[in-house]
């Protein structure tokens, strides 16, 4: 006998309170020192409010290089015992307002950290915020919002019925946010000389201070201007020069001239060899796209892979750059102060623009390659006759991880390329980036990029791209339940696609319109549309595409009572999805979807035992892949196959809970009202 709890998939985790909050705080720097006065103020506030629910907001602001982000992480770490559920961190995109991440996009990212599944994320800001409040209700956690540009970003992410320490960092002091239990502004200034001296003593080689003249160490402390970043650069300078001493370092820094912290960084930059200097100038060109950099993008600008590696190693030894993640990672990053100096030294404007164009081209092509591995369908920016051989699971994982890290850079590429009038790069990059964003549930970012891609297609006079982006926008609107918007934009794509004779885009347009009809309950119209889709797809010679059409048609045929026809279609689709192809593995998700629909058809045909077998297999697949809405649909149908009233009630209760957790209150109420009556979900 199959246990009900096993069918439902750990019922204790189906409610929002049981979701895991995914801690992602970066570790604290080992050289972190002092800030005792600021830390004591925050600790006092936390202890005063230890018995109170609500949000304690600490706003840390200070100039680049003073270490506001490190202080926020230090506070989050040392106060973690008071907030045991999780430590979450999100970069808000500042300090440059042009790269600030909109509040709705930040909610998408935060919902994923709070345990929301991709398919659960609603389409409107209000619904997203409601889900965030429910996922965090009753929880105790720390949330770090790094690099805020304004109070509006923070207000959009305020927790509700929870106990949260909210640590916000910004360049300038933020105005009052409001609607929190307590709000504490903290200015983070330069460190006292004693604290700088402590950082230097922690990090300098053990023998570096032996035999130095009186006052020499104090001169070095003064040249750090109270900034932790300059102290670290000084440490790196001596660490890589075992035959140099403090006097050499001081002379080197003083030769840079000037009294601004940037002048000290400039002195370190002036000491770079030519290969490292070339890399640093390329980093400056990249600053327009952000300070997280795919090192291969620098190679696309510089050529000379060996020289580039030599230059990067030198930047790393001077603490001017560091690798993100493991030694296999292709990503590096530079701090905001170092990045601003690099941007100043990127070269003449025409050189910087030329390099920025080359960087954008690199990211465009890399994004198209990565997205092609995820979709295995031809993208607008794909190279004709590219390799279509078998793809390993590791390649797909690496492609997904790359797109995850590159998402913000790709959005900047779209923006920069659009401003430069490079419509081809906008079109290719926007489509590729949204392949990942759709999968990740980052709806607002996805929609914004699709709109930019559509605008570029119009500007370029590219009819095929206009059709493609119209269809993709239709799917995005469909995913958030905006049927009228989906129908309007796809109908326009269809008008363009019919005279163009583009079979693939025609099929895509009709498919979206067919699903819209299906969602609205007009199953006769849906079958007409989707049958036409199948005829079009036959010309493409893609078995899986035909199987998807059969799955969709069968879904409406069941609703119309044509269950025998639906059964035949579904059995054919199952044989396609379950078998590996030349360039693909079995499609486990669609196998589960087909089995769920097949169970519905068999249930209506009166073959309840066979229906139960298919539905249980479908449910296992949905539980394994954490797909709650599909689980809810399947549980409803499964309830109609059991004779035990208690088991039936448990199935329906679990289905209603899954709908409610996903924010679909109307479906939850419908199921709850049907508990007293038999029958499968219509």
Quick summary of this structure?
The protein has 682 residues and is α/β, with parallel strands linked by helices.
Can you describe this structure?
The strands form 2 sheets. A 5-stranded parallel β-sheet has the order 2-3-4-1-5, with helices on both faces. Strands 6-8-7 form a 3-stranded antiparallel β-sheet. The chain is built from 30 helices and 8 strands. The two termini are 27 Å apart. Mean pLDDT is 83; it is low at 1-17, 385-390 and 678-682. It is α/β, with parallel strands linked by helices and 682 residues long. This is NB-ARC domain-containing protein.
Q: What labels describe this entry?
A:
682 residues; alpha/beta; 5-stranded parallel β-sheet; 3-stranded antiparallel β-sheet; TPR-like_helical_dom_sf; P-loop_NTPase; NB-ARC domain-containing protein
Helix share, percent: 55-70%
What characteristic shape results from the CA principal axes? globular
How many β strands by DSSP?
A: 8
**Helical run tally:** 30
What are the segments in which pLDDT stays under 50 over at least 5 consecutive residues? 1-17, 385-390, 678-682
The percentage of residues in β strands lies in 5-15%
Category from helices, strands and their pairing: alpha/beta
Biggest β-sheet: strands ordered side by side in the sheet = 2-3-4-1-5
Oligomer: single chain
Radius of gyration, Cα only, in angstroms? 29 Å
Distance between the termini: 27 Å
* Sheet with most strands: 5 strands, parallel
The overall pLDDT, averaged over residues, is 83
Question: Which helices and strands, and how do they pair?
Answer:
Layout: H1 4-8, H2 36-48, E1 54-61, H3 68-78, E2 86-91, H4 103-113, H5 125-136, E3 140-148, H6 151-155, E4 163-170, E5 182-187, H7 193-203, H8 216-223, H9 228-239, H10 246-254, H11 261-270, H12 274-286, E6 292-294, H13 295-302, H14 305-317, E7 322-323, E8 331-333, H15 336-344, H16 349-375, H17 393-419, H18 423-440, H19 443-460, H20 463-479, H21 483-500, H22 503-519, H23 523-538, H24 543-559, H25 563-578, H26 588-604, H27 608-624, H28 628-639, H29 645-661, H30 665-673
Parallel strand pairs: 1-4, 1-5, 2-3, 3-4
Antiparallel strand pairs: 6-8, 7-8
